[in-house]
Amino acid sequence: MMKKKYFLNANIIDPKNSIEEIGGLIVDENGKIEACGKKVNQNNIPAREKFIDLKEKYIFPGIVDMRVFVGEPGYEYKENFRTLSEAALSGGVTSVVTMPNTSPVIDNVSIVDFLKRRGRDKSKINIFPSASLTKNLEGTNMTEFGLLQKKGIVGFTDGIKTIQNTRLMSRIMHSAYDLDSLIMQHAEDSELSMNGIVNDGIIATKLGLQGISDISEKIIIDRDLSLLEEFNCRYHISQVSSMKSINSIKQKKNDVNFTTGVSINNLSLNENDIGEFKTFLKLSPPLRTEEDRISLIDAINKNLIDVIVSDHKPEDEESKRLTFSQAATGASGIETLLSLSLELVHNGSVKLNQIIKLLTSNPAKILKIDKGNLSIGNDADFCIVDLYKPWVVKEEKMISKSKNTCIDGKKLQGIVTSTFVKGEELFKI
Amino acid sequence: MATTSKKAIKISQKHLLGIQDLSISDINIILSESKEFISLNKSKNKKLDVLRGKTQINLFFEPSTRTQSSFELAGKRLGADVMSMNITNSAIKKGETLIDTAMTLNAMHPDIIVIRHQDSGACNLLSQKVNCAVLNAGDGRREHPTQALLDALTIIDRGKKIEGLKIAICGDILHSRVARSNIYLLNMLGAEVNIVAPSNLMPKEIEKLGVNKFTDMKKGLKDCDIVMMLRLQNERMTSSFLSSNREYYEYYGLTPDKLKYAKENVLIMHPGPMNRGIEIDTKLADDINKSVIREQVELGVAVRMACLKIFCE
After folding, report:
1. What is the ipTM of this complex?
2. Kind and range of the H or E element at B147?
3. At A418, phi and psi to the nearest 5?
4. Which of B97, B125, B140 is the closest to A208 by Cβ?
5. CA–CA gap between residue A91 and residue A427 (Å, rounded)
6. Distance to chain B for A318, nearest Cα, Å
7. Structure pTM?
8. For chain A, which residues lie within 8 Å of any Cβ of chain B, measuring from their own Cβ?
9. Which label site among A185, A335, A343, B265 has the fewest CB atoms less than 10 Å from its CB?
10. Closest-approach residue (CA) in chain A for B20
C-alpha cells in the first residue's frame, strides 16, 4: 500500500471524460484514481496532507501506443521488454500493443504464455500483445483467434506484412466477426510495391531508388473496405500515408465501421527529409509528399484518422549502416511520440485535446481496454508534461536499446517530466 | 603535346559523387582539363607523372569493361599506382559490409577510390568513411558522372556548342544512371532534353527534372541534334516491363526510319555495351558519319584522367 498522492493546479486533459480544465488529481493508496478535475483543489483536500503544485503543467492519461515492435523473443539485441518500458515511460507511454513479428512469431497459445510472463516480469508498463493473423506470418493459414484471445491477445495483425490473398482476407473477416476479434491490417500490395524503398515520385527518381506507389496502399484499403461491407468485423487500418488512401476512407466512412491509424513519422516528416540517403528515414509506409502529409493532418481534424502510433521499430546500428536499399526499415520512436505529436499542436495544425484523444482514449476504445483515461477507480496511469519546454532530440541520449531515431537533432517543445503507472512514479526527468 | 596546366584548379567538391553536386564552373574546369588529355592520348608517349606516388584503388562491385579499364588506363597514364580490387575474391563475398571494406582500404592510405556499386548512394556512404577522394563510377540507378562528362566532351569535340542543342535520351530511363547524370549536365549547360521511353521504363515525375517526356519515339526525336540511346538493362528488371525485344525494337529501337525525324546532321551516342538489334540498328551504330560511339570510349579516358588529376589534388 502506498501513500495517497495529491496533484494540484494542473491542466488536466482527459478526452474520455471530456475533462479539459485546471484542477487536481488524487491517487489513492491502491494506485487508483480517486478524484480528478476542477473540483480537486487546495480547499477540499485534508490540510495536513502534502500536495504537489504542478503550476499549470499538464496531466494527460498514459499514452496508449498501438504499434510497437519489441525484440523479444529473438531479437533481444534490438530491444527487450525492460529497455522498451524504460523508453516508453520517458515518453509518457504506459500501454503498448506489441507486434507479433518476432522469432518465433507470436502465433500460438504457448508462445503467448511466455510473452506474458516476460512482459509481467521485465516490463513496468502495460503490455498488450497482438498475435499474427496467419501462422508464421506466411499469409496462408489463419491463427486461432478465439483461443489466443482467451489468453489475452488484444488484436491480430501480420505487422509489417499484408494479407495479399483476397479469399483468405474474406475468411479472416468472417472468423473475426464470429469471435469479435480485432483485425489490424498493414495496407500494402506487395506485388505493386515489390523491391520498393521510398515513395514513388521525384525523390525516388532523383535518388535512383525503387518507388512504392501510393496506390499499393489504397488498393488494399479499397479491397478490405469492400469486403467489410459484407462482414463488418472489427477492422483497423494500421497506418495510412497518402492522400489517395484518405480519399478512399472518406468515401466509405459512412457505409462501414472501421478505424484508421497513422504513424507520427508520416504526420511530421515528408520524403524530402530523406536528404542524401539517410537510412534512419527508411520507413514503411514510406514518407510521402508534403501534400500527402497535409492531407493526413486534415484527416485528423476531420476525425477520419482515429489513432496516432509511434511505429516504434528498434534496429541496431549494423542494420542501418548500409546502403539505403540494404538498410533495415523502421525507426525507434516510442520516447518521442508525444513530444513530436505536440509539435503539431504548437504549430497550430491540430488542437491539443484532439491529439491527446488520438494517443489515449481512441486507441483504448478500439482495443476494448480500460486504459488511456483518468476515470475514477481506474489505474492511475498518467504523465505530467511541461508543454512549452524546448529540448533537442539527440541520438546518443535515446533510452531505447536501439538509437535509430528519424528525428535526430530536431528541436521539440513539450517534454514529459514524470510518468506514473498504477499510481507509482516510474519516470522522473 | 598536352602538358599539365599551370592555372590554379579550384573545384567546389572533395568527391565526384554526381553531376548534381557540381557547379557550372566545376564542369568547365573538368571539361577544359579533359581537352588537354585528348591529344596526349593520341600521341606516342602517353605517360605523365602528375600522379606519381599517388595510389588509386578501383572498387568495382558490378561487372564493367569500359569504365573499369578506362579508369585503370587513366590512372596509369598519369603515373599513379593503380590497384583494381577483384570483388569475387575479396572479403565482401565473405559478408563484409561496404563500410568495413572502406575502413580497411582507408587504412592503406589511398589517394583516390573509384567505386562502382549496384546500390544507389553507395559512393555517398563510402565518401563519409574515408579520408581520400571518392570518384563515382556508377551507383545503382542514380548517377554516372564521368559518363555524362565524356558525353558532353564528345559533343563539344565534334565542334558543337551544347547550349541550345536539342538532345533526345531514349530507352530504359528507369534503370539508367547515365540518363540521370546526362539530364543534370545537359540541362546545366543549356541544352533542351527530350526523354523517350515506354511508360514502364519512365521514372515517376521525371519532368520535374526539367525535361520533356515522350512515349512516342518519332515525336521525341523531332528536330533533335543528338540522339543518346541507352542499353536495355534486363539484369535490373524484376518483372514484366516489356512484352518482347522485337516489339521494343519496333517501337523504341533506333532505326533509319525513326532517325529521319531528327535533324539531318544528327549524332548518335550510346554509353555501351550495346544490344544490337534491340535498342539500335546495327548499321546505324557503325555509321561513321553519324555514330560517335567509338569516340565516346576514346574520350572517356581523357575525362577520367582529368577527374583523377583534379580530385587527387
Report:
1. 0.91
2. helix B145-157
3. -150, 150
4. B140
5. 9
6. 9
7. 0.93
8. 194-195, 200-202, 204-209, 211, 276-277, 318, 321-326
9. B265
10. A206
